[in-house]
Design brief:
Helix content is about 35%, strand content about 15%. It has about 325 residues and is α/β, with parallel strands linked by helices. It has a seven-stranded mixed beta sheet, sandwiched between helices. A three-stranded mixed beta sheet has the order 3-4-14, with helices on one face. Helix 10 links the parallel strand 11 and strand 12. The termini are far apart. The relative contact order is 0.14.
Length: about 325
């Protein structure tokens, strides 16, 4: 995330104040070490650690800062926009929450789709803005998909442990607050009538570990189908037609990413155009490219990162008119 901001900002001649999350300060400090080793002049890259309410708010409202790029919650994104509107109208790029769908048609390569679908939700324990926590499977292959996806999720449960252990494939949530939030969504899913197919509980007695969780018997209006969970929790729902799944997939407040699995190229293009999301991955998931713009529709944000679009947001257009002979 830091590199997505630093790269285009520095390439276009700006100096940067980088405030990392208070939950993950060390990687940003390591970047500062590397910048010093590389010979960046003092003051070009500035790392400011602190809490959002203090350090983040100061940046958002500072009259001499001309541009803010933020990755985080939609709630905080609104606060940054408000601060900009009340101060110097600084340019704001926001990469916010998501509720990405994975859509699996009955002609998909099932072996590859299963792996990609798991890769779309469980890496980083679901703590990803584009985590595809809604999986829609065409009804003719739903039983087979669910059975085999369950095996993949159970494999992660068996390989849960310390992030510092090379054999670990599933680690903890970032904090007690996030652990409680995810467990709250699991509780809500149960209370609203969804069925916990696997998982749905803490792993072990220590730490912030949550078992990879799969819900079935879900409806589109449930909170686990509408709200960003930011944890290793997904819901698998069957569908009949393309029109049906598009209506459900788009019926959320977010629009960051979506994954489509089909061997039919015409269908893939048609569905990609119809989905209300900034990034569509066909027969893959979360496969970002540095030269391809990334950003969201609706409440998933505004502006784009990566590629030429990112460079544009760190520059301003100026028109200079020089009279070379016109006389009045």
């Amino acid at each position: 995330m830091a590199s997505w901001k630093l790269g285009p900002a520095l390439a276009t001649g700006n100096t940067v104040v980088l405030k990392p999350s208070e939950m993950t300060p060390l990687s940003a400090l390591r970047i500062a070490d590397l910048a010093n080793e590389a010979g960046f002049p003092p003051g070009v890259i500035n790392i400011v650690n602190g809490y959002g309410a203090a350090a983040g708010s100061a940046i958002a409202a500072h009259p001499k800062i001309q541009k803010v790029a933020f990755t985080g919650s939609t709630l905080t994104g609104r606060k940054i926009l408000k601060a900009s509107s009340e101060t110097n109208l600084k340019v704001v790029t926001l990469e916010l929450g998501g509720k990405s769908p994975t859509i699996v048609f009955d002609d998909a390569n099932l072996e590859q789709t299963l792996k990609w679908a798991a890769a779309g939700i469980f890496p980083n324990m679901g703590q990803s803005c584009v985590a595809a926590s809604r999986i829609f499977v065409q009804e003719s292959i739903y039983p087979t998909f669910l059975e085999k996806f369950t095996v993949l999720a159970q494999t992660l449960t068996k390989n849960t442990g310390s992030p510092f252990d090379p054999s670990t494939r599933h680690g903890p949530q970032i904090s007690q607050i996030q652990f409680d939030r995810v467990m709250g969504f699991i509780k809500s899913g149960k209370e609203e009538g969804a069925k916990v197919h696997i998982g749905g509980e803490r792993h072990g007695q220590e730490g912030f570990f949550i078992k990879p969780t799969v819900f079935t018997d879900v409806t589109p209006s449930m909170s686990i189908m509408q709200d960003e969970i930011f944890g290793p929790v997904c819901s698998i729902m069957k569908f009949k037609t393309e029109e049906e799944v598009l209506e459900i997939a788009n019926d959320v407040a977010y629009g960051l990413g979506a994954n489509v699995f089909t061997e039919n190229a015409s269908r893939a293009i048609r569905v990609a155009h119809a989905l209300e999301a900034g990034s569509i991955w066909v027969n893959c998931a979360q496969a970002t490219e540095m030269n391809v713009p990334f950003g969201g529709y609706k409440q998933s944000g505004m502006g784009r990162e990566l590629g030429q679009y990112a460079l544009d947001t760190y520059t301003q257009v100026k028109a200079v008119h020089v009279n070379i002979g016109q006389k009045l």
